[in-house]
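Quick one:
INPUT:
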């Protein structure tokens, strides 16, 4: 596989239950792949799946990746336990803002994905994902 190739949502249907879940999983993998604050093993897993070099089911069963996920969840739990009430309230507000932005992005991606393709010649058509 070339470094420029990225899988399509449909290629995640082996683990996703529907196109919506595949879209969300694809977005999550992109986020993980680009998150410099995460364990390099997690970023590597996401990049490998996105490039098509590793099947998503295999990645989720690989001990290197599952250990990295477990470690990250443990860190998140510890950080949450250490928050004060005020910090938790602030985090809830920040999450609500983030979630609203994510929902708007998902709505835009859904509209792009579901837009009719007009192949009547020299116009601009859909060329696939980024």
């Amino acid at each position: 596989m070339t470094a420029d190739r990225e899988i399509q949502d449909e290629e995640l249907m082996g683990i996703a239950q529907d196109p919506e879940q595949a879209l969300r999983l694809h977005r999550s993998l992109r986020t993980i792949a680009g998150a410099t604050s995460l364990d390099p093993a997690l970023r590597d897993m996401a990049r490998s799946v996105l490039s098509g070099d590793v099947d998503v089911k295999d990645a989720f069963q690989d001990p290197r990746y599952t250990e990295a996920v477990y470690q990250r969840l443990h860190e998140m739990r510890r950080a949450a336990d250490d928050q004060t009430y005020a910090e938790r309230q602030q985090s809830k507000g920040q999450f609500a803002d983030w979630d609203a932005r994510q929902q708007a992005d998902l709505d835009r991606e859904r509209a792009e994905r579901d837009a009719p393709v007009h192949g009547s010649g020299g116009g601009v058509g859909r060329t696939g994902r980024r």
